[in-house]
Specification:
Layout (H helix, E strand, L loop, with lengths): L1 E6 L8 E6 L8 E10 L1 H7 L15 E9 L16 E4 L2 E2 L5 H5 L10 E2 L19 E4 L5 E4 L14 H12 L6 E5 L3 H12 L4 E6 L2 H9 L4 E4 L5 H11 L5 E6 L4 H10 E9 L13 H6 L4 E4 L5 H13 L1 H7 E6 L3 H9 L5 E5 L9
Parallel strand pairs: 10-11, 10-13, 11-12, 13-14, 14-15, 16-17
Antiparallel strand pairs: 1-2, 3-4, 3-8, 3-17, 4-5, 5-9, 6-7
Helix pairs in contact: 1-11, 3-4, 3-9
The structure holds zinc ion (ZN) (2 copies).
């Protein structure tokens, strides 16, 4: 049997639909029929050739959900549920070695030097060829962690849990946010929206969001933002005055940079209180520098400046649980759905930010209405 996949052959050129044979599974492997693949903002950067991890030709797509069609041997999900053909699953996007200093000593598998991801580190030149989620089928190696999803749940809605949701969860995990805290989020894409939803669920008292798109700001409000600041309407000085007024002149307890813009990080540092934390998860590829006043911004401020790189199974679990509790809200985050043949259009609407989140439905032949 063959499977269709969208292949990136040359940077900045349209993906090409190609057909590959579905490989025979090895012991412990699972073949999934992909029901939905997320189109991530970082897929756009990969398509543009800005991600140093990419080797062409490759099948993009690192976020996926689907149905198990075959298991070679026995396989359990992370909860210990034995899996069978017909089960719906979401897979953790990364595989770490499980044995190195980061995996075993520091228990931070997301920092494993051997960590790899389907649809990022994989080329489709050699067998098993099908190594990205922009495809009808994907064979998963035994090391991939799976979450079985209960029947009746619209699994396509859950796709963002595996990347932006998990990365936001990692940021939350490292932030030290406490109930009652005031929080500021920079960026109104999926990363920012997930962050708003997380801090609300943790009991943040004030959730201030800075963004540049009214519709996205409104979406943040529906997830729990208490104050929206449109950066096109309010100059930075004015934004600072508003934030300081709301926080007794201190600044917020925790700021989250989820925009991937150096200026956003700089503003996050200026709006956090003395002794607070500034958490930055927006930079998925090289994107500029900022100047830091070592005394005022860092030392005197006792600032905790925390970078965040990708995520691991622990964070996918956190995102999945958050989503399962707010499925209808998250359904609205997926603004565009396309068949596999329209993968280029999906990348375009993510690039232009017309879409908050686009997904591919590889087994649907026509665009699906919302
Ligand atoms: Zn490792
Ligand atoms: Zn991603």
């Amino acid at each position: 049997m063959d499977a269709r996949a969208a292949v990136l052959e040359k940077f900045n050129e349209p993906l090409v639909i190609k057909t590959f044979p579905i490989p025979k599974l090895r012991e412990g492997e699972v073949l999934v029929k992909i029901e939905a693949a997320g189109v991530c903002g970082s897929d756009v950067h990969m398509w543009e050739g800005r991600d140093p991890r990419i080797r062409l030709p490759m099948i993009p797509g690192h976020e996926g959900v689907g149905e198990i069609v075959e298991i070679r041997g026995e396989k359990q999900d992370v909860h210990g549920n034995r899996l069978f053909a017909g089960d719906k699953v979401l897979w953790n996007r990364s595989v770490s070695c499980g044995h190195c200093y980061f995996c075993k000593v520091k228990m931070e598998p997301s920092l494993c030097p051997q960590r790899w991801v389907y649809g990022i580190h994989t080329s489709c030149v050699d067998p098993p060829h099908l190594t990205g989620n922009y495809a009808e089928y994907l064979p998963l190696v035994p090391e991939v962690d799976l979450f079985r999803i209960e029947p009746g749940v619209d699994i396509s809605t859950l796709v963002p849990a595996s990347c932006s949701g998990a990365t936001a969860a990692h940021a939350i995990d490292l932030s030290g946010v406490e109930p009652g805290d005031s929080v500021l989020v920079q960026g109104v894409g999926p990363l920012g929206i997930f962050t708003v939803a997380f801090v609300r669920s943790l009991g943040a008292s004030q959730i201030i969001v800075i963004g540049g798109t009214e519709e996205r700001l409104a979406m943040c409000k529906s997830f729990g933002a208490t104050l929206l600041l449109n950066r096109h309407q309010l100059p930075e000085k004015e934004r600072k005055r508003i934030v300081m007024d709301m926080t007794h002149g201190r600044g917020v307890d925790v700021t989250f940079e989820m925009a991937g813009e150096p200026d956003a990080l700089k503003e996050c540092i200026s709006l956090v209180r003395t002794g607070g934390a500034c958490v930055s998860a927006g930079f998925g590829e090289p994107h500029g520098t900022i100047e830091v006043d070592c005394f005022h911004d860092l030392g005197r401020k006792n600032l905790r400046l925390q970078g965040v790189w990708v995520s691991d199974t622990r964070h996918t679990h956190m995102a999945l649980q958050l989503m399962l509790g707010h499925l209808q809200d998250f359904k609205r985050m997926i603004t565009h759905r396309f068949p596999l043949s329209a993968a280029n259009e999906a990348i375009r609407v993510m690039k232009t930010k017309e879409a908050v989140k686009a997904i591919l439905l590889p087994h649907k032949s026509l665009p699906t209405s919302l």
